[in-house]
Fold this protein.
Amino acid sequence: MFGRYFCFFSLCLLLPTQRRCSLGHVSSLHGSDTTSLPGFENLTMGYNKYLRPYFGGEPVQIAMSLDIASISSISESDMDYTATIYLRQRWTDPRLVFHGNKSFTLDARLVELLWVPDTYIVESKRSFLHDVTVGNRLIRLFSNGTILYALRITTTVACNMDLSKYPMDTQTCRLQLESWGYDENDVVFTWLRGNDSVHGIEKLRLSQYTVERYYTLVSKSQQETGSYPRLILQFELRRNVLYFILETYVPSTLLVMLSWVSFWITLDSVPARTCIGVTTVLSMTTLMIGSRSSLSKTNCFIKAIDVYLGICFSFIFGALVEYAVAHYSSSQKCAAKAPQEGPANELTKEMEEVNITNILNSSITSYKRKISFTSIEISSDNVNCSDLTMKTHEKIKCVLRNKMHRIIGYFTIQNPSNVDHYSKLLFPLFFMLVNVFYWAYYLYF
């Protein structure tokens, strides 16, 4: 058989012209020396499958259409999608014209005897042609020489994704078909019916995405070896955010609200407030780790969900720090009162042992000390820096000392219980404002 093929192609190269015969006519070449389609011996006598139609002349017009059977998976970590498609290609070969208006469906294995385009899928990582129970290919021959060639292919195609707005993102993916060896001088790719050449994509039901819209494009790929025709199917996928709201956003928001419960607990309840603060911080940390585990290979992206979890973690941690500040201020105030209460207790004990004269003397002495101490404090806080007798460097030190006292006075908490009172209002208010800016930015910008 291979010897017959070799003899046939040798004759094709040697003969100056090839005689094509219609059905019912006899070729000038003997059937025993040539190869032909079974049942079409007279039609394909002298047919050379290694030469494209119109060889040496005008390019072949190849019209394509697609049926998207399924998109089984879309991987953010690998940045690709897997789809099963029905690819149909149509072109006209004048060497296969026969009389009549019939069409014949041929065995798919006979495709080896015909010229077919060398179409491939651009940016395909893995592809295979289904072969159960036989190779899923179709060959149909029309009387005007038109050939319909259909394939069932499953392919994994790269799709560059921008995950900065995840999970409120919209991804744009492409399916590109291009000629591998024939440039635009040999073949021309066109969509059969424009956007109507693609079917099935609007009926797809995906787990995380919804197909927003799709459209077809005709382009060219400029390579070092020439310019090659390319067809592009571009479709937009919008992620369904409801799952992430229930899975991540609602729990993180509830944890922030739980951390506010400590504002209604007294400062003396150290174990209760500390337990709430530490528990919410650890729970928030676990939630953040879990949200990133599904996208372990894309940690370089700062996603919208990471921003929200970071905001929630900051508010929870801030509630814990707020209690630490309030408790520390309260303890400092109690320590400041202790020296003043100490002499009073001692004075009470002495009153039981001494007479009225000693009590009056000690009271007068302590009163003078307090007056002198208060005057010293007042003079130290309100030092007159405009004294003419003071030197320049002393005036500078005086001014700086007065400003430091004022700054420290601003940050001194006079009543620690007011910290919780203000936190009850400020924490929810700021959290609501941050949520308004967050959702407005990621949904509308």
Summary: The mean pLDDT is 81. Residues 47-239 form a domain with the Acetylcholine Binding Protein; Chain: A, fold (CATH 2.70.170.10). The longest strand covers residues 60-75. The first helix runs from residue 2 to 14.
